[in-house]
Amino acid sequence: MGDFSIGHGKSRAPILQCLLAAAAMAAASAVPGAALAREMVSFSPTVEPGTIVISAHQRKLYLVVSQGVAIRYPVAVPKSGKEWSGEAAIEGKYVNPDWVPPAVVRADHPELPNFIAGGSPRNPMGVRAITLDRYQVAIHGTTQKMRASIGTAASYGCIRMLNEDVADLYDRVSVGSPVIMMR
């Protein structure tokens, strides 16, 4: 519920087709030894380190850490009607962000308060938010209650992660880093 609806971005079909193939390859070739839900995997050597690639179909986020290697995290992706694809960039990084429900969320959940302070266990943004240069879209943590949504299509446009995973990702990325969303 800490997520937002967005429009579709620019599409670069040849790049995205290549990345889809790379994501499929990565899914099939996990390297053992990763902590928590994240794991090191082989990835397309054509994707630059520092790039985040999100596969909505796989419900995975890949952070390319070196040539041909990525960290794979499980995520919740946008639900039907809220999907998006294309390129974006990290616009900001926030620790324990406050949350104000956007109009589209409030319409579906009028019982929500107008504001939830950062650090509250009820805050759907969780412990970290990495905002993108798309209207009201972020990669963020989640509440304990909503942890079960990871691995599903449940959000209003954002990418939800386990709090421990978004904290790890937050420490590894920079403002301006590229993000690619594939369906």
Known CATH architecture: Beta Barrel
Under CATH at level 1, the class stands as Mainly Beta
Report the sheet with the most strands, covering strand number, pairing sense and barrel closure. Answer: 9 strands, mixed
Rg over CA atoms: 15 Å
How many helices does DSSP assign?
3
Strand content: 25-35%
The ordered string of helix (H) and strand (E) elements is HEEEEEEHEEEEHE
Structural class: alpha/beta
Average residue pLDDT: 85
Outline type = globular
What is the spatial order of strands in the main beta sheet? 1-4-3-2-11-6-7-8-10
- CATH topology category name: L,D-transpeptidase catalytic domain-like
Uncertain regions spanning at least 5 consecutive residues = 1-35
Count of the separate structural domains: 1
State the helicity in percent bands: 10-25%
**N-C termini distance:** 21 Å
User: How many strand elements?
Assistant: 11
CATH-defined superfamily: L,D-transpeptidase catalytic domain-like
Description of the structure:
This protein is an alpha/beta fold. The chain has a single domain (13-182), classed as Beta Barrel (L,D-transpeptidase catalytic domain-like). It is 17% helix and 28% strand. The protein is built from three helices and eleven strands, in the order H-E-E-E-E-E-E-H-E-E-E-E-H-E. It has helices at residues 13-28, 103-108, 163-172; strands at residues 39-42, 52-55, 60-66, 69-74, 77-78, 86-95, 128-132, 138-140, 153-155, 159-160, 178-182. The strands form two sheets. Strands 1-4-3-2-11-6-7-8-10 form a nine-stranded mixed beta sheet, with helices on both faces. Strands 5-9 form a two-stranded parallel sheet. It is globular, with a radius of gyration of 15 Å. The two termini are 21 Å apart. The model is unreliable at 1-35 (pLDDT under 50).
